[in-house]
Design brief:
Layout lengths: L2 H18 L11 H26 L6 H32 L6 H30 L4 H27 L4 H31 L6 H6 L2
Helix pairs in contact: 2-3, 2-5, 2-6, 3-4, 4-5, 5-6
InterPro entries: Cyt_b561/ferric_Rdtase_TM, DUF2427
Protein name: Cytochrome b561 domain-containing protein
Main location: membrane
Length: 211
């Protein structure tokens, strides 16, 4: 994309924002493209790649090492998410689009729940170590992660639309997120089928890994 087309696209975006609300930090407007790009890249990496990858690698390969890889991926994803949140808040303050639109509201909800997710995971793990059985916290940890991941990916698409992103950019994001989503669903279905078809009793360590 040429510089003139890029600049004109952001000028249209700024004009639309100014029509909705006048409380804009005009002197910082030149910073918006840089911060918005950083926000999109960081959140895209976190929700379209790192978080799904961590969930996939928890199930493949089937070993205790997969839990460590899962934790590393999720910690990295949270770090990217926090950095993305910081850049997003900066953009929102400059153009007065902080918590007055669906993208920032949903994004805030997702971030809050995902920041609590590691605490739920630690508590679930301790409960499992003590009882050697899955508890309600196991399912809270698993399904909270799944729901927030889906919301985060959908919210990424909302953010691209809000920023008047190019069609090519939207397609690239959709293809990438969709590919990881399909792989995750496929692996989960495969592991679920193996679990149902397995007649012998699972060992406690395997029971925790297959959540």
């Amino acid at each position: 994309m040429s510089l003139s087309r890029y600049s004109s696209r952001w000028w249209i975006f700024f004009s639309m924002v100014s029509l909705c609300k006048a409380e804009i930090i005009y002197q910082d407007l030149p910073l918006v493209p840089t911060f918005a790009l950083a926000h999109g890249v960081l959140m895209g990496l976190a929700f379209a790649i790192i978080f799904p990858l961590g969930a996939i690698l928890l199930r493949v390969p089937h070993s205790k090492l997969s839990i460590k890889i899962h934790i590393i991926c999720q910690v990295l994803g949270v770090a990217l998410m926090i950095a993305g949140l910081a850049t997003g808040v900066r953009v929102g303050r400059i153009i007065d689009r902080l918590h007055n639109n669906a993208h920032t509201i949903v994004g805030t909800v997702v971030v809050v729940f995902l920041l609590a997710q590691p605490l739920v995971g630690v508590y679930h793990h301790r409960r499992f170590r003590a009882t050697q059985t899955q508890s309600v916290w196991t399912f809270v940890h698993v399904w909270l992660g799944r729901i927030m991941l889906v919301l985060g990916i959908v919210n990424g698409g909302m953010g691209l639309r809000l920023a008047a992103n190019t069609t090519a950019g939207n397609i690239a994001y959709g293809v990438l997120a969709g590919a990881f989503g399909v792989v995750y669903v496929g692996v989960a279905a495969w592991k679920g089928g193996l679990k149902l078809g397995r007649k012998e009793k699972k060992s406690p360590s395997h029971e925790e890994i297959e959540i």
